[in-house]
Amino acid sequence: MEFAPEVLALCTFAFLAGFMDAVVGGGGLIQIPALFVLLPEIAPATLLGTNKFASIFGTASATVHYLRRVPIAWPATVPTACAALICSFLGARTASALPVQVFRPLILALLVGVLVYTLWKKDLGRLHAPHLEPARQLWFALATGAAIGFYDGLFGPGTGSFLVIAFVGLFGLGFLAASASAKLVNVITNLAALVYFIGAGHVRYDIAAPMAAFNVAGSLVGTTLAIRKGDAFVRHFFIAVVVLMILRFAWDIGRSA
User: Among 41, 55, 128, 178, whose CB has the most other CB atoms within 10 angstroms?
Assistant: First the structure.
């Protein structure tokens, strides 16, 4: 089977996105712009649906890989996932009424704060040391899932990275364990969105299917490397991804000004 040059290029971006997303999140920062640049004739909703289809297989593959190798902090992860699932629907409904440009400066400020805090706290995420009592952990998990789930439904890019920093900063998980929990939450919220996109006919399967295969390949390489290298590697990769996200959002703000 022969693929158009645009699809072959998208498969390369899907591999890179799968790798990044498996390690620390943020794969959408690579895959979504690539779809919009290389396929400008396709409706935005269909591009977003195609992206979800292509990426969810990689996210699910990374989740399974982590589950086999990394202990999951279930008391923090399960309520976060439940709240995120519900609030992602609310965010998606709100998205049609609010322009995303309103949120970009706030997200940029948040990312800069996350970067400064991560660089300042040298030991952040190096040790797996949960520190919240069960009752407080439950409420923090519900609040985290609600906020990030709503953001994922409303806007989306960088959701996996925000989940990682939440699991590290709020719950005291190591970066590797945080990445595993983030993947599990992210695949649940992505599945909810994909159900909507499929039902609305907003998936180009001829493009999404080969991208999904490459996304899975990238995710397998990413999870294997993350598990082998440990928390220090994931922390450095996280800092690099946050810097990339800051540059991306700053570019978007400057372009729309």
Answer: 178
Does pLDDT of 151 surpass 60? yes
End-to-end CA distance of the chain: 44
C-alpha to C-alpha distances, 166 to 52, 76, 231, nearest whole angstrom: 23, 10, 15
- What pLDDT shows up at residue 191? 83
Taking CA atoms, 116 is separated from 113, 120, 173, 221, in Å, by: 5, 6, 19, 29
Burial 180-190 (b: 16+ CB within 10 A, else e): bbbbbbbbbbb
The number of domains in the chain is 1
- Are 183 and 62 a contacting pair, CB within 8 Å? yes
Q: How far apart are CA 138 and CA 82, in angstroms?
A: 11
Domain of residue 81, residue span: 5-256
Is a pLDDT exceeding 70 seen at residue 190?
A: yes
Which segment, 13-22, 137-146, 212-221, is predicted with the most confidence on average? 212-221
Cα–Cα distances (Å) from 45 to 88, 154, 202, 214, in that order, read 16, 13, 6, 22
Q: Residue 38, exposed/middle/buried by CB under 10 A (0-12, 13-18, 19+)?
A: middle
Element (H, E) at 217: helix 205-229
DSSP codes of every residue in 53-87: HHHHHHHHHHHHHHHHHS---HHHHHHHHHHHHHH
Burial of 120 (0-12, 13-18, 19+ CB in 10 A): exposed
Distance, in Å, from the CA atom of 82 to the CA atom of 189, rounded to the nearest integer, reads 9
Q: Is the pTM of this model over 0.85?
A: no
